[in-house]
Amino acid sequence: MKHLSIIIPTYNMEALLPRCLDSLVAAKHAQYMDVLVVNDGSKDNSSHIAHQYQEKYPDVVQVIDKPNGNYGSTINAGLLHAKGQYVKVLDSDDWFDTVALDELLSQLQTLDADMVVTHFSQLGPGSAKEVIRYNTMGKEPYTYGQVYPVDEVLKDGYIRFFLMHALAYRTSLLREIEYKQTEGISYTDTEWATIPVFHAATICFLDLNVYQYNLDREGQTMAPAVLMKSIPQLEKVNDRLLQYYVEHKEGLTKARADWMKQYYENRMRILYKIYLLDMPRSDFKPEDLARLDDKLSTICQQLGLSPKLYPENKLLRIEYIDYWHRHHDRWPVWLEKINHLMDIVVKWLYVRLFRR
Predict the structure, then answer these.
(1) Residue 250 falls within a domain, yes or no?
(2) CATH label of the domain that carries residue 70
(3) How far apart are CA 338 and CA 56, in angstroms?
(4) 232-259 tens-digit pLDDT
(5) DSSP one-letter string for 194-248
(6) What is the pLDDT of residue 213?
């Protein structure tokens, strides 16, 4: 029996794919894994490399070659072939900690939950490393290994959102809800971290740091320069998530509906942040933000949402979106510079206190 299916979307990753796959096949319990390398029409040697691993580890690795359809299409293709009781996504420029993966495979044998949440590491330039744990200021609110009702966890307010890197789902749950990601665009991992939460009944947290998230790669989708060029894709994902909420909100409990509302406020906050804080001032066009703002304001009125955007350091209390509505402009340059320095200092302190 396969305990875990791992879907690996792959596009032109010949240089990094071996590291990714080596971290999996080296596991002592690799026979309990179902590794699905979905080659999304790569033009380099990625498919050949993946097939070499399939030949060497035929009971573990399976290669799915398909025409290019972007990120969501690879997840959809992988789910069709998943044999594991649980399923997790691993981008081909990232990797798993092999020791933690072995322990995860062991614990999944007896686990019975719709969602399984583990820690992950964000790896930056040089030796920069930040461990992401689902806690608050170092407090561990949940007992590891215990299965909780999802509503009980969401109503506590400790968790404002989930990220793809931390999540594994019961495969049968995804099939029951006929889960599919949007195809043709990037950033649909947000759908993976959201849509199944509408339907999951139980959740379990494990004290394992499995996913190693590589942020130190040129062209990485979360790089600021790439994000600036991808705003239309981010908008499409946001629109799809909001539409899903509209279609399913009537069946939600109050705890889950409240959590979903604050989650969508956070998604809107990200779009505003790109325009009002992250975008180079030379690229900022008020008319572009005005168009987006009109659309989001209408949605907020319809759904009773009220996104707010404060500085990350929480020390300056000027609200970005409110400032935009009053002045139709960004903060003054001098205030942005002060805020940026404060963000760096507070972030540095937080990481060293709580995420080492």
Answers:
(1) yes
(2) 3.90.550.10
(3) 55
(4) 899 999 999 999 999 999 989 999 999 9
(5) TGGGGT--EEEEEEEEEEEEE--STT-TTSHHHHHHTHHHHHHHHHHHHHHHHHH
(6) 95
State which residues form the domain around 291.
224-354
Q: Which of 214, 234, 269 is the C-terminal boundary of a domain?
A: 214
Partners of residue 39 on adjacent β-strands: 10, 65
Cα distances (angstroms) measured from residue 265 to each of 214, 303, 310: 27, 10, 13
137: pLDDT strictly greater than 60: no
Instruction: Assess contact for 188 and 130: CB atoms under 8 A.
Output: no
Give the list of residues 6+ apart from residue 55 with CB closer than 8 angstroms, or none. none
| Domain boundary, last residue among 196, 214, 232 | 214
Residue 150 and residue 272 share a domain: no
Structural domain total, the chain: 2
Long-range contacts of 217-224 (CB under 8 A, 24+ apart): 217/16, 217/93, 220/93, 221/186, 221/187, 224/278
Task: Give percent of the chain above pLDDT 90.
Answer: 74
Alpha-carbon distance of 62 to 81, in angstroms, equals 9
Cα separation of 222 and 118, whole Å? 21
Asked if residue 343 and residue 268 are part of one domain, the reply reads yes
Q: Give, for 7, the enclosing helix (H) or strand (E).
A: strand 4-10
Q: How far is CA 267 from the centre of its chain?
A: 12
Instruction: Let me know whether 241 and 200 are in one domain.
Output: no
b/e map 190-203, b = 16+ CB within 10 Å: bbbbbbbbbbbebb
Provide the whole-model pTM: 0.90
> Considering the domain boundaries, does residue 219 fall inside one?
no
Is the separation of the CB atoms in 214 and 94 below 8 Å? yes
**DSSP code at position 114:** S
Within-domain flag for 237: yes
d(CA 56, CA 48): 13
**Residue 100: other Cβ atoms inside 10 A:** 21
Does 269 share its domain with 158?
A: no
